[in-house]
Amino acid sequence: QLRKVMAYSSTANLGWMILVLQYNPSLTILTLIVYLFMATAAFLSLRANKATTLNSLATSGIKAPVLAAILPLALLSMGGLPPLTGFLPKWLILQELVKQGLPILATLVALTTLLSLYFYLRLTYVMALTTSPNNLTATLPWRLNPQYTSTALSSSLVISLLLLPLAPTMKTLVC
């Protein structure tokens, strides 16, 4: 069930926010805003693909190839990989923890992120490298008019992927 994975993701990101709340509340707000954009992008993409299980996620490339190409990037952004937006709040939180004299806690938190990243990589693997055993003989759905066009979906996907270049500006506004 994808809901369980997304619930775990929400809990893990809430842990990051609670961890830094006592040291830098404005950084917590920035983390919350970035996470809301990333979660909105992921949830709207899953809803547009009508994906509820890993098997239905594997067929999303047939239904909507563009979303199937962008959703793994949004998921990896939630995992905090460096070239994507999700890396920014995690990096700033780690810097704040080290600045507060808590390098062991920062290391422990960074290592626990690897567990979240495993789940996101697993979803990405299912979407990109596996195909569900379906026999499609009809017209492929992606050639028809799309039913999922949404301004919220497209803007949240762009923000969740490409906000990292604005990191210095956001850091000066927050810190």
From TrEMBL:
Domain of life of the source: Eukaryota
Domain NADH dehydrogenase subunit 2 C-terminal: start-end pairs: 117-170
Keywords: Electron transport, Membrane, Mitochondrion, Mitochondrion inner membrane, NAD, Respiratory chain, Translocase, Transmembrane, Transmembrane helix, Transport, Ubiquinone
Catalytic activity: a ubiquinone + NADH + 5 H(+)(in) = a ubiquinol + NAD(+) + 4 H(+)(out)
Membrane topology listed for this record: Multi-pass membrane protein
Molecular function GO labels: NADH dehydrogenase (ubiquinone) activity
Keyword S-adenosyl-L-methionine carried by entry: no
GO biological process, alphabetically ordered: mitochondrial electron transport, NADH to ubiquinone
PANTHER family: NADH-UBIQUINONE OXIDOREDUCTASE CHAIN 2
Protein known as: NADH-ubiquinone oxidoreductase chain 2
Organism: Lophogobius cyprinoides (crested goby)
